[in-house]
Write a structure and sequence with these properties.
The protein has 211 residues and is an alpha+beta fold. The model has no long low-confidence stretch (mean pLDDT 87). It has a domain of 128 residues: Glutaredoxin (3-Layer(aba) Sandwich). The strands form three sheets. A two-stranded parallel sheet has the order 1-2. A two-stranded antiparallel sheet has the order 3-4.
């Protein structure tokens, strides 16, 4: 978030707005301190039930959509890191992100529809992941699990959480949310192993950037 704040200040265009959504069932208690520490001046919301991820069918975070001044999606569904990041040391070191996304974003803000990075309507339509019936049921089960968890009914929450996982096993978003309830958190050893498995199996937890 601090890097995105820097990017936001560099762009410094009143017609450009970042809306950052924290997908976290922990709500304000979990996301608030992170927002406070970053002290961003762009819009921040806490999306407890992952409504935004469901609407755009994002399978992992961070993901984004570019929406123009007329409300049209002009780019969607790819890993959206502001720069290359590295975590861990030695053999456990993992590098992720890239240094091309931010320049592309700046180009779009400057040139609008004339930017080479704006996707055609056909490309956007093709990049929006369709929802299967099982995925829709998984979203509903996920929200029921959250509701039961909030009301202290842990056993019922686990039943619906497991249902969501079984109905949509490819949702990295769901997996990482569940990991926030563990001691290691959503970016610990389990997630690092998951990333390694996806890479070794040739699976995409993000679509490759088309830049």
């Amino acid at each position: 978030m601090p890097v995105w704040q820097q990017v936001y200040e560099e762009i410094n265009d009143p017609n450009f707005v970042i809306i950052c959504a924290a997908e976290d069932i922990g709500g304000e208690a979990a996301a608030g301190p992170i927002f406070d520490a970053a002290n961003p001046t762009y819009i921040q919301v806490v999306d407890v039930d992952h409504i935004i991820s469901s609407a755009f069918n994002f399978v992992n975070v961070p993901s984004s959509a570019w929406i123009d001044e007329e409300g049209r999606i002009v780019r969607i569904d790819e890993g959206t890191y502001s720069k290359t990041h590295a975590i861990g040391e030695g053999e456990q070191a993992v590098t992720f992100g890239n240094d091309v996304y931010t320049p592309a974003l700046k180009d779009w803000v400057t040139k609008g529809a004339d930017s080479e990075f704006v996707q055609s309507a056909e490309a956007v339509t093709g990049n929006i992941r369709g929802h299967s019936f099982d995925q829709l049921k998984a979203d509903a089960a996920f929200r029921l699990a959250n509701l039961f968890r909030v009301h202290g009914q842990k056993e019922k929450a686990e039943v619906y959480w497991q249902m969501a996982r079984e109905l949509n096993p490819d949702s990295v978003n769901f997996i990482r949310q569940n990991l926030t309830l563990t001691e290691e958190g959503s970016a610990g050893e389990t997630f690092m192993q998951l990333m390694g498995d996806y890479v070794s199996q040739g699976r995409e937890y993000y679509r490759p950037l088309d830049l």
